[in-house]
Design brief:
- The chain folds into two domains: 3-264 and 473-490, 3-Layer(aba) Sandwich (Aldehyde Dehydrogenase, Chain A, domain 1); 268-461, Aldehyde Dehydrogenase, Chain A, domain 2 (3-Layer(aba) Sandwich).
- By secondary structure, the protein is of the alpha/beta class.
- The strands form six sheets. A seven-stranded mixed beta sheet has the order 13-14-15-12-11-17-18, sandwiched between helices.
- The chain is built from 14 helices and 22 strands.
- The structure holds nicotinamide-adenine-dinucleotide.
């Protein structure tokens, strides 16, 4: 498929609006931003950022839409999401290709991201019939006590460049079945993917008769994100991105006592025990470290290896890294594509300098690639360094394919190292020893939101609640009971008797 065909099948033109109510595009006087592919450095198209008047129009429509949408029965809302999933199935190929071309991840991962949207839509459809509350036994006679879950209103969604479409769907599809309406601010680096989603599902929403405004889009950088953070008409803001961004958003939303759901940076480790199946561990480590060119929140950044297998496993890693094909992510033979832009390359280079300054030893050297096929200047070599966990650079998430190796002798020591970073997203232990596995998963084990045995840190399924602790922000999205974050709980007590007994046996006579 030619790029021009992909873009036209997704409704993307050379110049595009960047603001929508879901049913119509809104003109704005905002800046014209250009999107360049990190694959070949070429311009894909441009879009107009949202100005304050266009922002107001979107919020106004969302406010009106909520009044109507919340009255739709939840299974009927679920049926709209089912139709969205069908439309995504039809557009999986071109949308996956655009994700790969605009963001730089492999085509398999681009398609995988769209599949994740379809999966979460299917999950949301089932959920639309299961928004259960509990019934409690009252301590008073002839009283019924129970809880209900009600929608919140407008859910703002701020997303990062590395998952240009899936993260929005995790939020929006669940929020919609819960009866909320959404306003999305995608990353300014991958906004064309967002526009494509709006073209794909706009018609579905119109044909289904969904109120205009349940699906708002505002485009731009941090400033537009700040409008959402400070807006008291947005009761919940779900923000995915760096810890730096999360601290700013969390403070702004907290200031107005709104709710925030934060999905921030990770610094994920895999522990390789002396009882591990090293061949299985190798796949988990290499995919985790170099997949998406190290630009996943769940990327494996640290490997903590038992001293008895350290040298053997290091050799296996070096051999695997020598086989990696770096290049055009749209080619099926490629393992590693580009970083998102040249700023990311600068961060990678700065990290390499800092690793060496702190005493890190190169196992596989890094560097920037140039020449034919690498003209965008965004291609870097996946690299490996032997380090100590206390190094400042090791404590920090560098969003690039840099892998750190460390040695341990006792499992407790390895778990302490794995936990001794500010972030707490994903973690893993490779072992065939049952006591080690249970110990890692116990309350004395990993302190992360995700802890795996014989699976790497990267690539979660939508059925579980996704998110992490500490500087990762504490939010949970996607499966399990993560839907509760998108609703407000109401406790109801109904007295169907003829007297008014008070709780705790208190007597009050008038
Ligand atoms: P980023 O923080 O630079 O930007 C993320 C989003 O926040 C963008 O839409 C950006 O415009 C917006 N933003 C930035 N500053 C803001 C502010 N002050 N107020 C409001 N909005 C603001 O992150 P990025 O470079 O796009 O993405 C990479 C980061 O995202 C990594 O740290 C990665 O670990 C993290 N991430 C986390 C998860 C997760 O689920 N935990 C998932 C994907 C990415």
């Amino acid at each position: 498929m030619q790029l021009s065909e992909i873009l036209s099948s997704l409704g993307i033109q050379k110049e595009n609006h960047g603001t929508s109510t879901g049913a119509q595009w809104i003109a704005s006087q905002g800046e014209q931003l250009h999107s360049y592919s990190p694959v070949d450095g070429k311009e894909i198209g441009s879009f107009r950022t949202t100005d304050s008047a266009a922002y107001e129009a979107v919020i106004q429509k969302a406010t009106e839409a909520f009044e109507v949408w919340r009255m739709w029965p939840a299974p009927k809302r679920g049926d709209v999401v089912r139709q969205i999933a069908d439309a995504l199935r039809k557009h999986k190929d071109p949308l996956g290709r655009l994700v790969s071309y605009e963001m730089g991840k492999s085509l398999q991962e681009g398609w995988g991201e769209v599949q994740e949207m379809i999966d979460i839509a299917d999950f949301a459809v089932g959920l639309s019939r299961q928004l259960y509350g509990l019934t409690m036994h009252s301590e008073r006679p002839m009283h019924r006590m129970y809880e209900q879950w009600h929608p919140l209103g407008i859910v703002g969604v701020i997303s990062a460049f590395n998952f240009p479409v899936a993260v929005w769907s995790w939020n929006a599809f669940i929020a919609w079945v819960c009866g909320d309406v959404c306003v999305w601010k995608p990353s300014e680096k991958t906004s064309l993917c967002a526009l494509a989603c709006f073209h794909i599902i706009g018609e579905v929403l119109i044909n289904a008769g969904a109120p205009e405004g349940i699906n708002g889009l505002v485009c731009g950088g941090a400033e537009v994100g700040k409008w959402l953070s400070e807006d008291t008409r947005v009761p919940l803001l779900s923000a995915t991105g760096s810890t730096r961004m999360g601290k700013a958003v969390g403070a702004a939303v907290g200031q107005r006592l709104g709710k925030s759901l934060l999905e921030l940076g990770g610094n994920n480790a895999i522990i390789i025990s002396e009882h591990a199946d090293l061949n299985m561990a190798l796949i988990g480590c290499v995919f985790g470290a170099v997949g998406t060119a190290g630009q996943r929140c769940t990327t494996t950044r640290r490997i903590i290896i038992h001293e008895n297998v350290f040298e053997t496993f290091k050799e296996k890693l070096v051999h695997a890294y020598s086989q990696l094909v770096i290049g055009d992510p749209l080619l099926e033979t490629t393992h590693v594509g580009p970083l998102i832009d040249q700023d990311a390359v600068q961060h990678y280079m700065k990290a390499l300098t800092e690793i060496k300054a702190e005493g890190g030893k190169a196992v596989v050297e890094g560097g920037v690639l140039s020449g034919s096929g690498f003209e965008s200047g965004c291609y870097v070599k996946p690299c490996i360094y032997e380090v100590e966990n206390r190094f400042k650079i090791v404590q920090h998430e560098t969003f690039a394919p840099i892998l750190y190796l460390m040695k341990y002798s006792k499992l407790e020591e390895a778990i302490a190292m794995q936990n001794d970073v500010p972030q707490g997203l994903s973690s893993a232990l490779f072992t065939l020893n049952m006591r080690e596995a249970e110990s890692f998963l116990s309350h004395q084990g990993s302190d992360c939101g995700i802890a795996n045995i014989n699976i790497g840190t990267s690539g979660a399924e939508i059925g579980g609640a996704f998110g992490g602790e500490k500087e990762t922000g504490g939010g949970r999205e996607s499966g399990s009971d993560a839907w509760k974050a998108y609703m407000r709980r109401q406790t109801n007590t109904m007295n169907w008797g003829a007297t008014l007994p008070l709780a705790q046996g208190i007597k009050f006579h008038v």
